[in-house]
Amino acid sequence: MDPLKYLERELDDLRERGLFRWPRLLESPQEPVARYDGKEVVNLCSNNYLGLANHPTLKEAARRAIDELGVGSGAVRTIAGNMAIHKQVEQELARFKHTEATLLYQSGFTANAGTVAAILGKDDVIISDELNHASIIDGARLSGATKKIYPHKDTTAARHLLEESRGVRHVLLISDGVFSMDGDIAPLPELVALAEEFGAIMMVDDAHASGVLGRAGRGTVDHFNLHGRVHVQVGTLSKAFACQGGYVAGSQVLVDFLIHRARPLLFSTSHPPSVAATALAAVRLVQDQPEIIERLWDNTKFFKRGLMQLGFNTGASETPITPVIVGDERLAMDLSDQLFQAGVFALGIAFPTVPRGKARVRTIVTAGHTREDLQKALDAFNRVGRALKLI
């Protein structure tokens, strides 16, 4: 008997619910209009917020790094793979984030999971928003700490959990800065005030705020002017900055500790020099050209207003992440599939990525979209939405 037979049953269940599908195949550069599965479509699925994934400045930085430094680092940073280009990126990010230090990770996921698991143990408590990213959840599990979950953005409930946790060795209060499926912003000023009142460690995952919120995209800490009051900031280089990797920003003590205890750093090879050089170029470009972020927000307001005028439910979105919430998971997939046939790529999202009954098509506009692109997308949403009786 095949011991993996049970996996086939799970797949059959997905097929029956209309949820089984392979990722669409990208056959062009990652652009606002791209070719997926052989079809040119308006791309509303990418996290390429600032349209930098095919930017000539970034491509030149990558080519130059390959010519000068090769294609790989050859080792983890703590053995032989700690390259000067890695330190340059960290120094630039520390200046960017107004922190003492930063530490590069191989991805935003490992930055969250590796940091939480490193700084907490079984005698500690993690107080976390119920919609926090999966990497935070996994980090909490790996840490062995007690997990206490508060309802989404409910700071009163967070206060109760902090009160319950008095006397615990270490308490971590953690939230996404921008929530990845709903596009709303965390009540960070209130959370920071709670952390200070109860002596908790304050941590924010700014993956979807990096390059989007704050001056030159510095994130939610800058957006709310909370510099020096958030102990651990996680950012990503794979979304607005268009390459790969994540980072933790905070005190020098935090970074020095993570260098010795963060397992992703200790046991996974460091960035290729071309990736690090691309990240460095991207962070500098966004600071030099903040008008890119202004275009992102202009496009966001135009598209969000258009969806709402058509009568779609966009939830509590405040950012370029704009969900079109339909509830039923099969209907969400049908909406996504028919939009694709109409020339618009907007992905259907269902449980377990979002709660049951909250299935949606998730859209993200970028600075690179033209008004013509976005109007074409709105026209497709109008036609398909009416055909499916969603509006």
Structural class: alpha/beta
CATH classification class of the largest domain: Alpha Beta
- Low-confidence sequence ranges: none
Specify the oligomeric state. single chain
- Strand element count: 13
Mean pLDDT: 96
List keywords for this structure.
2 domains; 3-stranded mixed sheet; 14 helices; 391 residues; Aspartate Aminotransferase, domain 1; Aspartate Aminotransferase, domain 2; alpha/beta; 7-stranded mixed sheet
Topology:
Elements: H1 5-16, E1 33-36, E2 39-43, H2 56-69, H3 84-97, E3 101-105, H4 108-119, E4 125-129, H5 134-143, E5 146-150, H6 155-164, E6 171-176, H7 188-198, E7 201-205, H8 220-223, E8 232-236, E9 246-250, H9 252-261, H10 263-267, H11 273-288, H12 291-310, E10 321-327, H13 329-341, E11 344-345, E12 347-349, E13 359-364, H14 371-387
Parallel strand pairs: 2-11, 4-5, 4-6, 6-7, 7-8
Antiparallel strand pairs: 1-2, 3-9, 8-9, 10-13, 12-13
In short:
With 391 residues, this protein is of the alpha/beta class.
